[in-house]
Specification:
136 residues; alpha+beta; 2 domains; 5-stranded antiparallel beta sheet; 5 helices; elongated
Amino acid sequence: MATNIYDYLTFGNTITFDVYPAAIIGARFSDVKVMALLDKDTAKQWIDPEAMHINVYPTLPDGVPDDPDQYQYVKLKHLNGKISVIGIPWIREDTLQTSQKGTLTISVKDVGPIDMDRIVKAISANGYRTDKVSLK
């Protein structure tokens, strides 16, 4: 199943991506939290969508409508608390990645001491660090 841009732009996701109008709004958005999807009128609370569209449209790929009313905007929160609002077509979709990280907890049944050692080695061999390992 192919992933589309809206799979990443879900409320609460932490994402990293590049934009087409890098010279205008910065090249990389790193570890930004998705706060909301907005229409143009709501985006006006943070940016001037018409003025931004005039500036960024020449940098966008073919097929993007030349009308800021025809696409959505995304509200993003940076690590420092700053809010950015950008048009969704401004995002370079091929650079989108989820950057939220956490701790994975796995429970495996019927494991003995030798199995535990093999499992930990397999995890480590794939570049992951184990934090806590116990056998109950």
